[in-house]
């Protein structure tokens, strides 16, 4: 499915690799200009941006930023608005895991995950909020997780952060609905990226066995749902959470 994002700018966080990169590629393939925001090295980020601009012939630039840092997020959104002339789509995708049972979880494990996954999402929304309000148009899509809906042993910090992403999504959807800005979330299940590659083969097999479709998803599966939520075709959908999980959390 292709959409028309010509002359529109997408800011995608955590877009140097994984799901974020697939999202940046999908939006660029529909004509969007892409601002890649990531905490990776300058070299890696610029490589990802060049790959997209060369493949799709659109403007794509890299901005190094730790989304959990409010001042960095503010500076980077201001720079992107100035460089691209505005932002039409914000995709909050940057995320980390520090999986442990609460028994072994340190306060620092909890804080780190909340700060990137949840506060990072707040920071990016807060720093683009007035821009979207004034524009009276826009799309905000945040990447939650099915464990934000179901919980998961060993992921108290991560599932709390992802449940929080759903809470902020629904609240901001209500705040911005009258301004023509839609705010939605996707909740991926088991998606094959570096994040899940770190799991042992045994754990991967256990996950896959539980999925009704009997396979993990691809980053492109998630990117397709996000592109839809960014499109004109989704203009009457707001405050929604779309699971992309092969049926795992139904
Ligand atoms: P990934 O392969 O680990 O990629 C995450 C990206 O986010 C990396 O490029 C990383 O940069 C960046 N990032 C991390 N912390 C950041 C920060 N503070 N500021 C800016 N960028 C930061 O992960 P993924 O699997 O693609 O996951 C993407 C999103 O989907 C996450 O929010 C994750 O929780 C969610 N999700 C994933 C799955 C799954 O099965 N994979 C399932 C449900 C939800 P570095 O290169 O510097 O690390």
Protein architecture, described:
The protein is an alpha/beta fold and 250 residues long. It has one domain: NAD(P)-binding Rossmann-like Domain (Rossmann fold). The chain has helices at 18-29, 42-56, 70-84, 107-135, 147-150, 156-176, 194-197, 201-210, 219-230; strands at residues 9-13, 33-38, 60-64, 89-92, 138-143, 181-188, 241-244. Helix 1 packs parallel to helix 2, helix 1 (18-29) crosses helix 9 (219-230) and helix 3 packs parallel to helix 4 (107-135). The radius of gyration is 17 Å and the shape is globular. The protein binds NADP nicotinamide-adenine-dinucleotide phosphate. The site of NADP nicotinamide-adenine-dinucleotide phosphate has 29 residues, from helix 1, helix 4 and helix 7. Residues 13-14, 16-20, 38-40, 65-68, 93-96, 116, 120, 143, 145, 188, 190-191, 193-196 line the site of NADP nicotinamide-adenine-dinucleotide phosphate.
